[in-house]
Amino acid sequence: MSIRQKLQGQLGFGTAPLGNMFRNIPQAEALATVDAAWEQGIRHFDTAPLYGAGLAELRLGEALAKRKREHYVLSSKVGRVILDEFEDPAARQLGEKGGVFEHGRPNKIVNDYGADATLRSIEDSLKRLKTDHLDIVYVHDVAQDFYGDGWLAQFDIARTGAFRVLDRLRNEGVIKAWGLGVNRVEPLELLLDLNEPQPDAFLLAGRYTLLDHERALQRLMPAAAKRGVDVVVGGPYSSGILAGGTHFEYQKASPEIIAKVEHIKAIAQQHGISVKAAALQFALAHPAVASVIPGASRPERIAEDQAALREQIPAVFWNAMREQNLVAADAPLPGDKE
Protein backbone atom coordinates (compact mmCIF):
# COMPACT_ATOMS: atom_id res chain seq x y z
CA MET A 1 0.00 0.00 0.00
CA SER A 2 1.41 3.40 -1.00
CA ILE A 3 1.54 6.45 1.25
CA ARG A 4 -1.12 7.98 -0.95
CA GLN A 5 -3.50 5.14 -0.07
CA LYS A 6 -2.57 5.22 3.63
CA LEU A 7 -3.43 8.90 3.95
CA GLN A 8 -7.11 8.09 3.40
CA GLY A 9 -8.05 11.23 1.55
CA GLN A 10 -6.67 14.53 0.41
CA LEU A 11 -7.04 16.64 3.56
CA GLY A 12 -5.12 16.01 6.77
CA PHE A 13 -4.63 17.94 9.98
CA GLY A 14 -1.36 19.61 10.95
CA THR A 15 -1.03 20.05 14.70
CA ALA A 16 1.66 22.73 14.97
CA PRO A 17 -0.96 25.25 16.21
CA LEU A 18 -1.85 22.85 19.05
CA GLY A 19 1.66 23.45 20.40
CA ASN A 20 0.56 27.02 21.17
CA MET A 21 1.92 28.47 17.97
CA PHE A 22 1.66 32.27 18.18
CA ARG A 23 -0.80 32.19 21.11
CA ASN A 24 -1.71 30.39 24.31
CA ILE A 25 -4.51 28.05 23.26
CA PRO A 26 -6.81 26.73 26.02
CA GLN A 27 -6.68 22.97 26.45
CA ALA A 28 -10.40 22.55 25.85
CA GLU A 29 -10.20 24.50 22.59
CA ALA A 30 -7.28 22.39 21.37
CA LEU A 31 -9.05 19.12 22.11
CA ALA A 32 -12.29 20.37 20.55
CA THR A 33 -10.37 21.22 17.37
CA VAL A 34 -9.12 17.65 17.04
CA ASP A 35 -12.64 16.36 17.70
CA ALA A 36 -13.97 18.69 15.00
CA ALA A 37 -11.39 17.33 12.55
CA TRP A 38 -12.54 13.80 13.31
CA GLU A 39 -16.21 14.68 12.92
CA GLN A 40 -15.40 16.30 9.57
CA GLY A 41 -13.94 13.01 8.36
CA ILE A 42 -10.22 13.74 8.73
CA ARG A 43 -8.18 10.63 9.49
CA HIS A 44 -4.64 11.84 8.83
CA PHE A 45 -2.92 13.63 11.73
CA ASP A 46 0.61 15.03 11.68
CA THR A 47 2.55 16.22 14.72
CA ALA A 48 6.09 16.64 16.08
CA PRO A 49 7.97 16.91 19.39
CA LEU A 50 9.05 20.45 18.45
CA TYR A 51 5.50 21.78 18.51
CA GLY A 52 5.36 23.35 21.94
CA ALA A 53 8.07 21.02 23.32
CA GLY A 54 5.73 18.03 23.20
CA LEU A 55 2.50 19.93 23.89
CA ALA A 56 0.92 19.19 20.49
CA GLU A 57 1.67 15.47 20.84
CA LEU A 58 0.20 15.39 24.35
CA ARG A 59 -2.98 17.11 23.22
CA LEU A 60 -3.35 15.00 20.10
CA GLY A 61 -2.77 11.83 22.10
CA GLU A 62 -5.46 12.77 24.59
CA ALA A 63 -7.96 13.69 21.87
CA LEU A 64 -7.38 10.51 19.86
CA ALA A 65 -7.28 8.13 22.82
CA LYS A 66 -11.00 7.48 22.44
CA ARG A 67 -10.60 6.54 18.75
CA LYS A 68 -9.65 3.13 17.40
CA ARG A 69 -6.01 3.25 16.33
CA GLU A 70 -6.58 1.36 13.08
CA HIS A 71 -9.01 4.07 11.94
CA TYR A 72 -6.46 6.87 11.46
CA VAL A 73 -2.99 7.58 10.10
CA LEU A 74 -0.52 9.18 12.49
CA SER A 75 2.79 10.81 11.62
CA SER A 76 5.36 12.44 13.87
CA LYS A 77 8.99 13.47 13.56
CA VAL A 78 12.49 12.87 14.88
CA GLY A 79 15.50 15.14 15.26
CA ARG A 80 14.48 16.77 18.54
CA VAL A 81 14.51 15.18 21.97
CA ILE A 82 12.40 16.77 24.71
CA LEU A 83 14.08 16.72 28.13
CA ASP A 84 12.75 16.96 31.69
CA GLU A 85 15.01 19.99 32.16
CA PHE A 86 13.47 23.43 31.73
CA GLU A 87 14.21 26.70 29.95
CA ASP A 88 12.40 29.88 28.95
CA PRO A 89 10.39 29.04 25.79
CA ALA A 90 10.51 32.66 24.64
CA ALA A 91 14.33 32.53 24.56
CA ARG A 92 14.57 29.50 22.27
CA GLN A 93 16.39 29.87 18.99
CA LEU A 94 14.31 28.04 16.39
CA GLY A 95 15.98 29.20 13.21
CA GLU A 96 13.75 31.33 11.04
CA LYS A 97 10.75 30.33 13.17
CA GLY A 98 12.09 32.48 15.99
CA GLY A 99 9.80 32.47 19.02
CA VAL A 100 6.84 30.89 17.27
CA PHE A 101 6.36 28.44 20.18
CA GLU A 102 7.10 30.85 23.00
CA HIS A 103 3.82 29.78 24.64
CA GLY A 104 4.76 26.10 24.59
CA ARG A 105 5.96 23.92 27.45
CA PRO A 106 9.20 24.97 29.19
CA ASN A 107 10.93 21.64 28.59
CA LYS A 108 14.37 21.91 27.02
CA ILE A 109 14.67 20.84 23.39
CA VAL A 110 17.86 19.16 22.13
CA ASN A 111 18.57 18.81 18.41
CA ASP A 112 19.96 15.34 17.63
CA TYR A 113 19.65 13.35 14.37
CA GLY A 114 21.76 10.42 15.54
CA ALA A 115 20.61 6.81 15.72
CA ASP A 116 20.14 6.60 19.49
CA ALA A 117 18.31 9.92 19.64
CA THR A 118 16.01 8.79 16.81
CA LEU A 119 14.95 5.71 18.75
CA ARG A 120 14.49 7.71 21.93
CA SER A 121 12.46 10.36 20.12
CA ILE A 122 10.08 7.74 18.73
CA GLU A 123 9.71 6.10 22.14
CA ASP A 124 8.94 9.43 23.80
CA SER A 125 6.46 10.37 21.08
CA LEU A 126 4.60 7.10 21.51
CA LYS A 127 4.19 7.84 25.23
CA ARG A 128 2.95 11.38 24.64
CA LEU A 129 0.60 10.22 21.89
CA LYS A 130 -0.73 7.30 23.96
CA THR A 131 -0.26 4.85 21.11
CA ASP A 132 1.83 1.80 20.28
CA HIS A 133 2.96 2.75 16.78
CA LEU A 134 3.50 5.55 14.27
CA ASP A 135 2.55 5.14 10.64
CA ILE A 136 4.96 7.71 9.17
CA VAL A 137 8.08 9.21 10.75
CA TYR A 138 9.72 12.29 9.25
CA VAL A 139 13.22 13.61 9.95
CA HIS A 140 12.43 17.16 11.02
CA ASP A 141 13.94 20.46 9.86
CA VAL A 142 17.35 19.22 8.72
CA ALA A 143 17.65 22.30 6.50
CA GLN A 144 18.98 25.82 6.07
CA ASP A 145 16.21 27.62 7.91
CA PHE A 146 17.29 26.01 11.17
CA TYR A 147 21.03 25.48 10.73
CA GLY A 148 22.17 28.05 8.19
CA ASP A 149 25.42 27.12 6.47
CA GLY A 150 25.82 24.20 8.89
CA TRP A 151 22.78 22.35 7.58
CA LEU A 152 24.83 19.91 5.50
CA ALA A 153 26.70 18.76 8.61
CA GLN A 154 23.36 18.09 10.30
CA PHE A 155 22.14 16.33 7.17
CA ASP A 156 25.19 14.06 7.26
CA ILE A 157 24.47 13.11 10.88
CA ALA A 158 20.91 12.27 9.85
CA ARG A 159 22.15 10.33 6.82
CA THR A 160 24.19 7.92 8.95
CA GLY A 161 21.81 8.03 11.90
CA ALA A 162 18.11 8.76 11.52
CA PHE A 163 17.77 7.75 7.85
CA ARG A 164 19.21 4.28 8.40
CA VAL A 165 17.33 3.69 11.63
CA LEU A 166 14.02 4.64 10.04
CA ASP A 167 14.72 2.55 6.96
CA ARG A 168 15.36 -0.47 9.19
CA LEU A 169 12.22 0.16 11.24
CA ARG A 170 10.15 0.36 8.07
CA ASN A 171 11.65 -2.86 6.71
CA GLU A 172 10.90 -4.56 10.04
CA GLY A 173 7.30 -3.33 9.92
CA VAL A 174 7.64 -1.18 13.05
CA ILE A 175 6.66 1.90 11.03
CA LYS A 176 4.91 2.01 7.68
CA ALA A 177 6.98 4.75 6.04
CA TRP A 178 9.59 7.46 6.57
CA GLY A 179 10.81 10.64 4.94
CA LEU A 180 11.88 14.23 5.57
CA GLY A 181 9.70 16.99 7.00
CA VAL A 182 11.23 20.36 6.10
CA ASN A 183 10.52 23.91 5.01
CA ARG A 184 13.12 23.91 2.24
CA VAL A 185 13.45 22.09 -1.08
CA GLU A 186 17.21 21.48 -1.10
CA PRO A 187 17.39 18.64 1.49
CA LEU A 188 14.72 16.71 -0.39
CA GLU A 189 16.55 17.07 -3.69
CA LEU A 190 19.79 15.98 -2.03
CA LEU A 191 18.27 12.86 -0.51
CA LEU A 192 16.80 11.81 -3.84
CA ASP A 193 20.28 12.09 -5.38
CA LEU A 194 22.03 9.92 -2.78
CA ASN A 195 22.58 6.19 -2.96
CA GLU A 196 21.13 5.92 0.50
CA PRO A 197 18.00 4.36 1.93
CA GLN A 198 15.23 5.96 -0.06
CA PRO A 199 12.25 7.65 1.59
CA ASP A 200 8.58 6.95 1.04
CA ALA A 201 7.28 10.48 1.45
CA PHE A 202 8.22 14.11 1.94
CA LEU A 203 6.39 16.61 4.10
CA LEU A 204 7.18 19.93 2.46
CA ALA A 205 5.89 22.97 4.35
CA GLY A 206 5.43 26.34 2.72
CA ARG A 207 7.27 25.53 -0.51
CA TYR A 208 4.34 24.48 -2.66
CA THR A 209 1.83 27.25 -2.14
CA LEU A 210 0.27 30.02 -4.19
CA LEU A 211 2.98 32.34 -2.84
CA ASP A 212 6.02 30.09 -3.29
CA HIS A 213 6.18 27.11 -5.64
CA GLU A 214 8.60 27.83 -8.49
CA ARG A 215 11.66 26.09 -7.01
CA ALA A 216 9.73 22.92 -6.13
CA LEU A 217 8.27 22.77 -9.63
CA GLN A 218 11.65 22.87 -11.35
CA ARG A 219 13.13 19.65 -10.08
CA LEU A 220 11.72 18.29 -6.83
CA MET A 221 8.19 17.45 -7.89
CA PRO A 222 9.19 15.65 -11.12
CA ALA A 223 12.01 13.78 -9.33
CA ALA A 224 9.73 12.72 -6.47
CA ALA A 225 7.06 11.52 -8.88
CA LYS A 226 9.64 9.55 -10.86
CA ARG A 227 10.92 7.85 -7.68
CA GLY A 228 7.43 7.17 -6.36
CA VAL A 229 7.94 9.42 -3.34
CA ASP A 230 4.66 11.04 -2.36
CA VAL A 231 4.63 14.70 -1.32
CA VAL A 232 2.51 15.90 1.58
CA VAL A 233 2.09 19.68 1.47
CA GLY A 234 2.22 21.41 4.83
CA GLY A 235 1.48 25.07 5.43
CA PRO A 236 -0.73 25.57 2.36
CA TYR A 237 -1.81 28.95 3.75
CA SER A 238 1.82 30.17 4.08
CA SER A 239 1.68 30.57 7.88
CA GLY A 240 -1.82 32.06 7.66
CA ILE A 241 -1.53 34.98 5.25
CA LEU A 242 -3.60 33.08 2.63
CA ALA A 243 -6.33 32.36 5.17
CA GLY A 244 -6.90 35.85 6.46
CA GLY A 245 -3.97 35.92 8.90
CA THR A 246 -1.01 38.26 9.15
CA HIS A 247 1.95 35.83 9.21
CA PHE A 248 4.13 34.63 6.34
CA GLU A 249 7.06 32.29 6.93
CA TYR A 250 6.27 32.34 10.68
CA GLN A 251 6.75 36.12 10.87
CA LYS A 252 4.70 39.22 10.20
CA ALA A 253 4.15 39.42 6.45
CA SER A 254 6.14 42.03 4.52
CA PRO A 255 4.42 44.79 2.50
CA GLU A 256 5.42 42.96 -0.69
CA ILE A 257 3.74 39.72 0.40
CA ILE A 258 0.66 41.58 1.60
CA ALA A 259 0.40 43.31 -1.79
CA LYS A 260 0.65 39.98 -3.61
CA VAL A 261 -2.05 38.45 -1.43
CA GLU A 262 -4.29 41.48 -2.05
CA HIS A 263 -3.78 40.95 -5.78
CA ILE A 264 -4.84 37.31 -5.47
CA LYS A 265 -7.77 38.32 -3.26
CA ALA A 266 -9.00 40.81 -5.85
CA ILE A 267 -9.06 38.14 -8.57
CA ALA A 268 -10.79 35.70 -6.22
CA GLN A 269 -13.46 38.27 -5.34
CA GLN A 270 -13.99 39.00 -9.01
CA HIS A 271 -14.85 35.34 -9.57
CA GLY A 272 -16.74 34.84 -6.32
CA ILE A 273 -14.38 32.38 -4.65
CA SER A 274 -12.27 32.29 -1.49
CA VAL A 275 -8.49 32.56 -1.38
CA LYS A 276 -8.44 29.65 1.06
CA ALA A 277 -10.12 27.43 -1.53
CA ALA A 278 -7.64 28.50 -4.20
CA ALA A 279 -4.70 27.77 -1.88
CA LEU A 280 -5.86 24.26 -0.98
CA GLN A 281 -6.89 23.25 -4.47
CA PHE A 282 -3.73 24.65 -6.06
CA ALA A 283 -1.53 22.43 -3.89
CA LEU A 284 -3.62 19.34 -4.56
CA ALA A 285 -3.60 19.86 -8.33
CA HIS A 286 -0.02 18.62 -8.67
CA PRO A 287 0.04 14.86 -9.37
CA ALA A 288 2.98 14.35 -6.98
CA VAL A 289 0.93 15.67 -4.03
CA ALA A 290 -0.78 12.99 -1.95
CA SER A 291 -2.26 15.16 0.78
CA VAL A 292 -2.44 18.68 2.16
CA ILE A 293 -2.33 19.27 5.91
CA PRO A 294 -3.44 22.75 6.97
CA GLY A 295 -3.14 23.51 10.65
CA ALA A 296 -5.96 24.76 12.86
CA SER A 297 -6.38 25.82 16.46
CA ARG A 298 -10.12 26.53 16.47
CA PRO A 299 -12.87 23.96 15.76
CA GLU A 300 -14.66 26.15 13.21
CA ARG A 301 -11.56 26.27 11.01
CA ILE A 302 -11.92 22.58 10.17
CA ALA A 303 -15.32 23.03 8.54
CA GLU A 304 -13.93 26.02 6.64
CA ASP A 305 -11.12 23.86 5.26
CA GLN A 306 -13.52 21.16 4.15
CA ALA A 307 -15.77 23.74 2.50
CA ALA A 308 -12.74 25.23 0.73
CA LEU A 309 -11.82 21.80 -0.59
CA ARG A 310 -15.32 21.35 -2.06
CA GLU A 311 -15.68 24.87 -3.42
CA GLN A 312 -16.14 25.08 -7.18
CA ILE A 313 -13.46 27.27 -8.74
CA PRO A 314 -13.99 28.22 -12.39
CA ALA A 315 -11.20 27.74 -14.91
CA VAL A 316 -11.30 31.45 -15.70
CA PHE A 317 -9.94 32.20 -12.24
CA TRP A 318 -6.90 30.00 -12.84
CA ASN A 319 -6.45 31.48 -16.29
CA ALA A 320 -6.37 34.95 -14.76
CA MET A 321 -3.86 33.83 -12.13
CA ARG A 322 -1.60 32.43 -14.82
CA GLU A 323 -1.98 35.42 -17.14
CA GLN A 324 -1.08 37.83 -14.33
CA ASN A 325 1.97 35.76 -13.36
CA LEU A 326 0.62 34.87 -9.94
CA VAL A 327 1.24 31.18 -10.58
CA ALA A 328 4.05 29.65 -12.61
CA ALA A 329 3.27 28.99 -16.27
CA ASP A 330 4.04 25.26 -15.88
CA ALA A 331 2.22 24.74 -12.57
CA PRO A 332 -0.56 22.13 -12.84
CA LEU A 333 -3.88 23.86 -12.13
CA PRO A 334 -7.32 22.47 -11.33
CA GLY A 335 -8.67 24.45 -14.26
CA ASP A 336 -6.40 22.57 -16.64
CA LYS A 337 -8.67 19.54 -16.25
CA GLU A 338 -11.82 21.34 -17.32
UniProtKB/TrEMBL annotation:
Superkingdom of origin organism: Bacteria
GO CC terms: cytosol
Domain NADP-dependent oxidoreductase: residue ranges: 11-323
Pfam families reported in the protein's UniProt record: Aldo_ket_red (PF00248)
CDD domains in UniProt: AKR_AKR15A
MF GO annotations: oxidoreductase activity
InterPro entries listed in its UniProt record: AKR, NAD(P)_OxRdtase_dom_sf, NADP_OxRdtase_dom
Name of the molecule in the record: D-threo-aldose 1-dehydrogenase
